[in-house]
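Entry type: protein chain
Record version: 2
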Amino acid sequence: MTMACLAQPEQQQKLEWLDGGTFSLLDQEATEGKLTVGRFDVAKGEAPPFHLHTREDEVFIPIKGTALVWSGEEEHELREGGIVYLPRNVPHAYRITSDRADLLMIATPGGIEGMFRHAGRDLTTPRPDGFEIPTSLLAEASELYGGVILGSPR
């Protein structure tokens, strides 16, 4: 058997993301455009805006930790080891409810990593004093990569 891509943790790009969390990724280049795989290490309260994606479907799996997940107007608790599938064009959001979470994200097709790269900060670069991702940059990145922000975090 031949493995098309193997990316050990030290080979994965790592970005600083919302609320100081980190995001490691395997991008569309490594998967021939088929998917993006990301892994978030985030603290309690981390929450992206209520949004939807027009280009990809998403799956989230909390390897460790818990979150509240909104899909449309429905709210659900996502426990460690649970799986949520969020089809494109379905408004959604989440909020981490445990002290920390290790959250796996799979998006298909690939390409959503461009949004994270546009608004996030590569951890191999020096961290500017007071670094944060302003709402305007997050909105710009989302729009560039087929996302639509519908409201504030829940």
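Comment: The longest helix spans residues 135-144.
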